[in-house]
Amino acid sequence: MRLPRTLRLDPSDTFVFPRAAEPGEWAVTGSFLFLDVETTGLSPKDRAAFRSGFVGVRSLGFSTLVVVSEATASEHAEAVEDLAGHIHERFGAPDRESARAAAREELDVSASLCNLPVGTVVAMHRAERDGSIREEFRSLHRRPGSDVLHGRAFHFAEVDEDAPEERVHLVGLIHDTRSGG
Fold first, then answer.
1. Helix, coil or strand: residue 115
2. Which InterPro entries match (predicted)?
């Protein structure tokens, strides 16, 4: 079975959301967190979570991205139990079995997003339209045959230790451009 896992490429989720999911948690879309919420009154961080946050089932923290991953039956069962605990204790499910049923349903929805190759990264945009919550998903994946480094923001290269160190004085560059130099 395939399920989404939270993915943290940089620390931005820890600044953008009220609570960031831990990297590698099993995830659900998490729209149930916003069902009875007036979205116009959300704080900026909660608004960011509403717009683009997947929810880690263990922490109930948010993640901008998830990655399609293989899950064993025992990992799926553990994810159900983690989410059921939150649904029962924090969201008032009448009993643990009702909470498990709701958790299974949330994980089934998330699994339906994973009809993609393992390793595919998925992002979400959530919006409120005509009184209901709408989710749109997009997948990001490397093109077959493309260079492994294609699309990376940074590439680390080994340098010769004897070479002179390069330094850039950014403030000086700004002053030079302002003075026409």
1. coil
2. DUF6505 (IPR045442)
